[in-house]
Each structure stands twice: as C-alpha cells, then as structure tokens.
Amino acid sequence: MLPAPLARPPVIAIVIFWVTTWALQASCCGDITLPKIFSDHMVLQRNSAVTIWGTAEPAQKLVITLAGHKSTATADPSGHWSVLVETAAAGGPYELAVAAESGEPRVVFSDVFFGEVWLCSGQSNMEWSMKKILNSNTEIEQAKNYPNLRLFTVTHQSSPTPLQDFSKVESWRECSADSVQEFSAVAYFFGRELSRELAGIPIGLIDSSWGGTPAEAWISRPTMESQVALAPLLEHWDKINLPNNHVSPANLYNGMLAPLTRFRIRGAIWYQGEANNGRGEQYGTLLPALISDWRNTFSDSEMPFYFVQLAPFRYQDHPINALPEIWDAQLKTLKSVAHTGMVVTTDIGETDNIHPKNKQEVGRRLAKIAFADVYRSELNQEQQAAVSCSPIYKSHTVESNRIRLIFEHVGEGLGNRLPESPLTDFQICGEDRNFVPAIAEIQGNQVIVSSATIENPIAVRFGWTDTSEPNLINSAGLPASPFRTDDFPLESVGRSF
Q: Please, which pLDDT band fits residue 385 given cuts at 50, 70 and 90?
C-alpha cells in the first residue's frame, strides 16, 4: 500500500521549491516598495511634476527611471523616500523603474502613460456601476473602443486615522468590456467624453466612492474642527464613539483618500448629498469645506472640482423641501467657491428611483464643464463657443406686481423643453412668506413671474420640491438650477446630524 503515495513527493518538492524561490524573490524586491496607486497600466498627470514615493532600506540610494529619464533619491532614517519627476506631453507606453544604486533589487511598472488623471468620488450615484445603467450591454461592449482609458478602483476602507497606503485595491486596468462592468458609470462616461474630444489623450480615472456615505466622512478631521458650525456634528459622533464606522466624520478621508494625496491629479468630480438630505443648511458648510480640504490635501489651491446637483426623488422620510435645501447649498457653493462647476439633473432623474439610470448624460455634462474650464485651448472654435453649463439665477428686480429674474449662462436665450406647456415650478410670495404657484413667461434672457393672488411680491422660488422637474432650459438644452431669491431661514436650521 506504500508505493502509490511515495510516487508523488518529487512533484510536491518542485512546487515547494518554486513557492519558496518566489517568496525569497518577493522579499528581496520588498526592500523597495511603492504605494498601491502605482502599478502597470497607470496614468501619470502629463506636463506636470509628479511625486514618486515609497520605502526602502534606511539610507539606501535609489535610481528612479521614468520614460528613459533618471532621477535619484535616498531613503531617510525611517526608510521613506520621494522624488519629483517631470512628465512630458501625453504619450506612452513608458516604463517606471525604481532600483537600488547597484541595480538590484528593482521594481518595474510597464505600460505607463502620461495623460489626464481625475479623481471620481461620492456615494452610490457615483459608485453605480456600468452593469446597472441604461443600455448597459451595449455600453459595456463598446468600452473596448477606449483602451486609452485606464481605471483604478479604491476598495472600501474606513479608518479612524489617516492611512499611508491602501490595504487592498484593484490595480490600474486598461478599459475593456471586462474591466468596466463594475466600474463607476458616471466616471466612465466622463472619461469617455474626454477621450473622444481630446484626440485620444490617455485618461486615468480613480474611483473612490461608497454608497450611503455622508459628506463629513470624506473630509479630514482638522478641517472640520476649524469650522465652528460643524462642532455639534463632531461632538455627536464623539459621544457615539464608533471609531471604525464608515459614516463617521473623516473615516473615508482617512481610508480612501489620504493614501492618494501625493498622487498628482488634474481635478475631481463629485456626486454625493443624498446621505445629507435633511441637513441642507449644514451641507452649505460641508461642501465648501470638503473642496477646500481636498485642494489643500492635493496641494493645488485651484484644483478643478465639479459636482452633480442631486436628481429629484421623493424622500419619504423628509419634508418635500428637504432636497431643495441641498440644491440650495450646492448652488451657493458653485457661486462662492472658485474653479467649481455644477451639473443640473432635474430633467434626467426618476422621482421613484434614487439611482436614475441615465448616467451617460451626467458624465457628458461633467465633461462639458471640464472642456470649458480646463481644456478650452485644446478644442476647436465651435466647441469653445458651446454653452457648457445650466442657466443660473443671477439677480431679480421687483416691478409692481411681478418679479423679473435675470440669469447667467443662457447661451442664445432661455427656452422651454416642453414648448407646448407653460413654464413650471415657479412660486411667488408676498410679505406673509406664503409661497403660491406662479405664472412665468420668458422675455429674452429673463423670466417674468407673477400671480393674480399676490399684489406686492417679495420673493420667488423655483424647483422648490423634491420631485420638481422644471422645464426652463437654455439654448444648449441644459435645465435651469433650482433656486430662491429670498434668504428666509431654512427648515433645516439647527439640524446637525
């Protein structure tokens, strides 16, 4: 009975030898490590000074080679090293190698490109995958036509303290029908538009998103502590004492953004706010704080930051004006924070679905803002002249029994996407602040609002219910943002958590 089992050990011995040899090689190469954001197929920001960093033996001298150009670095007493490397115009594929001065050990990443790198973050509507959208099968199949898109997904991770590196990620992948299926649809369509219009420039998309998460989870603790208005929020969570909870303040910043902050990016797109619904006034502090925080973190005070104004949806657990108060905070952020852009989605939502499936148009509208703001010089004259954003309320005047509204970004004029119907979702009030439905008429680039029941109007609101789907548009067909002309106290005043 013994001969049969005795016949197998040589094969096992070979396997053990191979595994042992591989382990020894990995340990040797492990003297030099780079964060997980570095891998084959990655995109580095073009025409920039990018930071390459990692760890090695203390005092070890290193040679960093990128696209044939060499730089040197020396690990400090704790083993950390970094070097700034200049990148050229868009191109590739290149090789990034980090080696000891002697040549060994050596870490090599191949198929590296110089291009445009964007961070894509938020909650479920940013995380929503290509498998769940309109025409998903066709869109996924066509993804193979954009191999110059490179995709990086940050795995969910919450941490009470800032992490130096991710514990686990999906490394950079070339865009294909396989790699795109679970990737953020909004991020993909944003990147696809950039790829189409920027003559095939490589586009790197970093998806760091998590459904159901509030804005405060994505902001660093020191930034929130600097905001007096956020003190009750932080005190609340400190009392609860859930240090690893993924919705706790700063925990997703610590786990899913901090490891990225030395990686050079062009800008960020953001789709979030549902988890903050009901706290509209506070969101008016949170969103600007987040933008400032990220710009400080990525060492770019003018970093482009574009966000999506939430789609209409009937939130059963909130008053019908809770979502408009979030819209109000988003609009105020657009107006008060430089180098931002906002996509309005009141015409492409689904009032019975918090995750509307038309992510193609969301991505396209985000890209239109990027073209106008960042890439204008790389477009033709027709593209440069295109209207890139929605009509935005600018000012108003009271004229007897009516109010005249003045808008920005109207293009060749305002219009009605449902021309057979009157303009909808306008409300007007008098001194009693009781808003009633109003009649609205377009006059060139302006709108005249009135009501037979209001003799002395003082304020107008537009799109001020959570299921509003107004029909006012500009010449580019983009819907006007909800707004209010008043500064009356919001219902969410004092709601901190």
A: confident
